[in-house]
């Protein structure tokens, strides 16, 4: 599992995959889909697929794959290496969704929630397998939202496939269990080796489970809040837990518009633009590190 490209720039999502086994190009195959890291306020969400010939489902089951949430980290790592070592008949692919991409997607002007993002990612991975030459006939998916509606949606997009969407599919179908292991191993590795591009001083990586209801996670969020720029990209700032801390502890700013000042005076609350203006003695304005870290470019000159 080569994660170096994502680790070099974790502000962007990445797709990585194993080679497609030759047998999967000629024999009917089944494919499972699952995710890891949907709920945490910290780190990426990872969607994974795993596929193998329908005729070798029993071999996959005999490898003792199971829902990744029921396995220890050591067992997940061992099983992933076993899956990866069975490249003669098993293939996999992963889509690592950066927390930066998750947050900006959910906060864009047009409504785009986490369920829609999850559905689109799963659809993209199915299409990726088809485009790679996998002879898919069966797809098994751990549901996001109502299972019947999700299944109907996938069948309309892929009418040639036999699609099954179920709650807890990772405990029902070995091929989904295998996908859940791939996704969970990738997320654990990425979170453990996360490269913070922001200057956080003496970084404390003891952030607990990363889930919003974890007191240790909440305390870490409060401690690593920049009063103007908010959180490092490790944080999903669209989550309500992060938003609440921002509302209570961040510097209040207003998007300045003098035309809206009915009193004729200027507000004591600074315009957010004032934080980004260049010093008067600088001939060429320099982009603040906040924008450099997030690969943001100005749309107009101030």
UniProtKB/TrEMBL annotation:
The keyword Zinc-finger does not apply. Keywords: Endonuclease, Hydrolase, Metal-binding, Nuclease. Manganese or magnesium. Binds 1 divalent metal ion per monomer in the absence of substrate. May bind a second metal ion after substrate binding. Residues 252-271 are annotated as: Disordered. Catalytic subunit of RNase HII, an endonuclease that specifically degrades the RNA of RNA:DNA hybrids. Participates in DNA replication, possibly by mediating the removal of lagging-strand Okazaki fragment RNA primers during DNA replication. Mediates the excision of single ribonucleotides from DNA:RNA duplexes. Endonuclease that specifically degrades the RNA of RNA-DNA hybrids. Belongs to the RNase HII family. Eukaryotic subfamily. This is Ribonuclease. The gene is rnaseh2a.L.
């Amino acid at each position: 599992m080569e994660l170096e490209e994502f680790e070099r720039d974790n502000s962007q999502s990445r797709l990585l995959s194993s080679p497609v086994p030759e047998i999967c190009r000629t024999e009917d195959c089944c494919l499972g889909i699952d995710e890891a890291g949907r709920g945490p306020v910290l780190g990426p969400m990872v969607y994974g697929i795993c596929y193998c010939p329908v005729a070798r489902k029993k071999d996959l089951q005999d490898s003792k794959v199971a829902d990744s949430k029921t396995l220890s980290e050591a067992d997940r790592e061992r099983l992933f290496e076993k899956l990866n070592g069975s490249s003669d008949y098993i293939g996999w692919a992963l889509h690592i969704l950066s927390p930066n991409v998750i947050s900006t997607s959910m906060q864009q002007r047009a409504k785009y929630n986490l369920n829609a993002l999850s559905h689109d990612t799963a659809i993209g991975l199915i299409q990726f397998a088809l485009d790679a030459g996998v002879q898919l006939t069966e797809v098994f998916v751990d549901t996001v939202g109502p299972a019947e509606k999700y299944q109907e949606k996938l069948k309309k997009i892929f009418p040639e496939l036999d699609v099954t969407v179920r709650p807890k599919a990772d405990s029902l179908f070995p091929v989904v269990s295998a996908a859940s292991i791939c996704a969970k191993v990738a997320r654990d590795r990425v979170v453990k080796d996360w490269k913070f591009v922001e200057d956080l001083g003496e970084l404390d990586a003891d952030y607990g489970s990363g889930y919003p209801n974890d007191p240790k996670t909440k305390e870490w969020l409060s401690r690593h809040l920049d009063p103007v720029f908010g959180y490092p990209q490790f944080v999903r700032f669209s989550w309500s837990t992060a938003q609440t801390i921002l509302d209570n502890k961040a510097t209040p700013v207003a998007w300045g518009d003098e035309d809206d000042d009915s009193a004729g005076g200027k507000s004591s609350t600074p315009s957010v633009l004032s934080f980004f203006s260049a010093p008067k003695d600088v001939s060429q304005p320099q982009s603040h590190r906040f924008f450099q870290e997030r690969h943001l470019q100005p749309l107009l000159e101030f």
